[in-house]
Amino acid sequence: MMQTPAWTTWIGAAEFEQALGRDDLVVIDARFELADPGAGETAWRQARIPGARYAHLDRDLSARADSGAEAVRRGQGRHPWPDAADFVRRLGEWGVTPASQVVVYDDAGGALAAARVWFLLRALGHMRVAVLDGGWRHWLAQDLPIERGTPMPAGTATAPYPGRFDDALLLDAPQVQAHLDAGGLLVDARAAERFRGDVEPIDRVGGHVPGALNRPFTDNLRDGLAKPPAELKAEFARLLDGRSPDALVAMCGSGVTACHHLLALAHAGMARPGAPGPRLFTGSWSGWIEDPARPVATGG
Fold it and tell me: ∠ CA(284), CA(277), CA(221), 5° rounding?
């Protein structure tokens, strides 16, 4: 029997379309709008890639308000990293097992919140997960199959996914400060104007963590698609400036779009399974400013 390929970073629409209906495939729709948190799920109910389950950023990919993990949520920003028990239970409801090939998409170039799903699974040790290159918009533009109307039931749920998060990949604010003090690299994925503090449409304070560098997540894309691995590798090598990729910690506003950098690094071959790897500042900017005593920098 011919072994099916494993997709672990981005997957092109044409190749993915050929895999629809594969027994091991789980498709996840992660469309989400910050200004209207219910819009993504509404859009999924109307039309989706065939067989796609829906992952809600607030409900499924972040710590739930009713989880009781208040001590965990403090300092974790607007989208706290979810409790492992809740997330693995949700994976089981979607039918995800260690043998599954997961493909996830959104309509924001992977940044809200497909890359978040990707890194959540990677942090559990699940490597067979990929983001659909170009996402929903590119899929529509290519006139590829869609499913309309009431979604079919997800099917028989499995047991909760048998894994736990690798905490070494997840940093809080004190750990980030220690990382910077030791000469590590902190890369902020927000738009340049938010990084500088010129505008701040979401959080109560504008600016950035002192010592952080800015690389907007959009720099990983061209015309809505991922840049080639060699190009991404050259760009991140310049940013690393002689450091190992393991020295990079990614952040953004709330730990969501930062995952796009971690995905891009893996696509470039700079984040290898079994290596320590680049890490995530889970609370990111919204978590950093929860303590008014922490320093804030503005400008370039």
Answer: 65
